[in-house]
Amino acid sequence: MNAFEITGGIKLKGEITPQGAKNEALQILSAVLLTEKKVTISNIPDIKDVNKLIELLGDLGVTVERINKDTYTFEAKNIDLNFFESDTFKAKGGGLRGSIMIVGPLLARFGKAAIPKPGGDKIGRRRLDTHFIGFEKLGAKFVYDSKKAFFNVDATNLKGAYILLDEASVTGTANIVMAAVLAKGTTTIYNAACEPYLQQLCKMLNRMGAKISGIGSNLLTIEGVSVLGGTEHRMLPDMIEIGSFIGMAAMTESEITIKDVCYDELGVIPEVFKKLGIKLERRGDDIYVPSQKHYEIDTFIDGSILTIADSPWPGFTPDLLSIVLVVATQAKGNVLIHQKMFESRLFFVDKLIDMGAQIILCDPHRATVNGIDKKYKLRGISMTSPDIRAGVSLLIAALSAEGKSTIYNIEQIERGYQDIDTRLRALGAQIKRVNADAPSH
């Protein structure tokens, strides 16, 4: 098993460029199945979840060509629909949560699809009902084989429909949009997700010939077309990486410039970090974070303790709550972190408490952080990464801690962060990859 060994307490300095957005990649790559024409996509992150999906597309019969480190062309001219029945598909599709995203495009273009029950992070129950209910409203019929944990879908006659989503699911909205663009008639999706990643998908589909209006709002109208063409698309930088680097700079008292962030697409993210007292400046399309010895958490106007909670876009993304929680441990002041959207994303705080953080886990959704204002440093420990975002939060804690930390199960981190150790070393971090068995406890 691979692990990271980190010697903390070192100030970092320099420039770092965020990778392409993981959550956008899973949608955009699936959309290549909607056309037999060539689609060129750039700024693709070189991470396991994305590479697995590219491999799955190749197995389905898509001609995949790598142009350079982050640019590929895709041509989905000869799709092998029998691949769905293979053990290879069951194994690969079941191990990748993003595999659910190929269902919408395949239903739209071929009228049928199959999908094993997807995997992914262990962060509580993540329903797929939104996807399936949306497909059913468009006319798809599902048969679930509970013995094989497999869904077979028939969608030979998709028709536009009015769909009111029970939750503003990003992947659910994306999947329904991709199914609807080739359906007969008009589809209206209300309570649609409106994240920048989804806006990117809709803009790309429109360049391919789709007719989607209402982009950026929670009401999408899609007029079905008969065929889509090719296009070129560049993915946004990963906003979760950008937020992680802001937090890392504050925790380690580092002076860091985060390059090419597409600032206008970051929504409230910079403002939330400013509420923690972190100074940051916009410089063109870069974010400059100066070295800060102290940062103080705001209170509400009436003087009560600040609450930071996640909510659907344009609210604060749940993927950055664990970063905010870690950063708050070294701030001056108190904050209540309220994780509304997933059940068990706060369960990594026991490791931070072991490092010396003052945190009260109120329940599975809420944690109160008493910031220690850097009066003493966190101490290095051995720990295991439970999921992608918690893993990076622990990595940031380790970079700021006194002494050596070891993080096991780094495969979880590497599912979402490309060459993270190499890029951090370029800033001066003492981090190395080692082979080590995880502790038995």
State the main characteristics.
441 residues, alpha+beta, UDP-n-acetylglucosamine1-carboxyvinyl-transferase, Chain, 2 domains, four-stranded mixed β-sheet, globular
* Strand fraction: 15-25%
Write out the CATH superfamily name of the largest domain. Answer: Enolpyruvate transferase domain
CATH level-1 class of the largest domain:
Alpha Beta
Radius of gyration: 22 Å
Q: What is the makeup of the main sheet?
A: 4 strands, mixed
Rough outline:
globular
Number of helices: 14
CATH topology of the largest domain: UDP-n-acetylglucosamine1-carboxyvinyl-transferase, Chain
Overall pLDDT metric: 91
Number of spatially distinct domains? 2
Q: How are the strands of the largest sheet arranged?
A: 21-22-1-23
Task: Count every beta strand, where a strand is a DSSP E run of 2 or more residues.
Answer: 23
pLDDT < 50 stretches: 119-126
- Estimate percent helicity: 25-40%
Q: Write the CATH architecture name of the largest domain.
A: Alpha-beta prism
Briefly note the structural class of the backbone.
alpha+beta
Calculate the terminal CA-CA distance, rounded to whole Å.
15 Å
What can you see in these coordinates?
With 441 residues, this protein is α+β, with helices and mostly antiparallel strands. The chain folds into two domains: 2-19 and 237-435, Enolpyruvate transferase domain (UDP-n-acetylglucosamine1-carboxyvinyl-transferase, Chain), CATH 3.65.10.10; 22-234, Alpha-beta prism (UDP-n-acetylglucosamine1-carboxyvinyl-transferase, Chain). Helix content is 29%, strand content 25%. It has 14 helices and 23 strands. Helix 6 (170-180) packs parallel to helix 7 (196-207), helix 8 runs parallel beside helix 10 (321-328) and helix 10 (321-328) runs parallel beside helix 12 (388-400). It is globular, with a radius of gyration of 22 Å. The model is unreliable at 119-126 (pLDDT under 50). Keywords: Cell cycle, Cell division, Cell shape, Cell wall biogenesis/degradation, Cytoplasm, Peptidoglycan synthesis, Transferase. The active site is at residue 121. One of its GO terms (cellular component) is cytoplasm.
